[in-house]
Amino acid sequence: MEPFPEGLVLAAGLSSRMGRQKLLLDVGGAPMVVRVVRAALASSLRRVVVVGGPCTDLVETLVSARTEPRLTVTVNPNPEQGMSSSLRAGLACLSPGASGVMVILGDQPFLTSDVIDRLIAAFRSDSDKIVVPSVMGRRSNPVLFPADLFPDLARTRGDVGGRFVLKRNARRIVRIEVGDTYDDSDVDTPQDLKRLTRKVRSGTEDAIS
Fold first, then answer.
1. Residue 175 burial class via C-beta count within 10 angstroms: exposed 0-12, middle 13-18, buried 19 and up
2. Is the pTM here over 0.70, yes or no?
């Protein structure tokens, strides 16, 4: 049976450095998290789980504008406990028998379905590996973890995501160079948002329609 990974979009962050909920800010004509979710849904991920926080109702309204049976939105009741709490909330929603999970950050608005599918293709050739994108030799996100590491991900604490799981399983990591097609810029501060907005307006990045 062909491995079928699912996607987990982390969208419950408190946006403390931005000073307001950054995932709902407009980037190229769409809220940032909507761009990310659309890319995930356009890929070959079997299902996509979005983990929201205090503004979950608004996030759900935005990403569920059209009927999409592959999309699930869940709530992280304790976003102040960091990224690991969103991981646990999302892992609990995965389908039984899912072969892997791609952990996707909600603040990387230039992620594309092509990048996601390139990672999935590598995973399907060896579903025991952790697959990560490499941008000009630099490890980036999203990260695709095999199912046997779900318990380790669920045990993480704090605002570290899967970092410690990656460190403990370094020999299992496979890097896929995607620097030719992927701008992995994220958005944490107002300065980041201004820079990415200028990039979209200059035509160096196309908005996701």
1. middle
2. yes
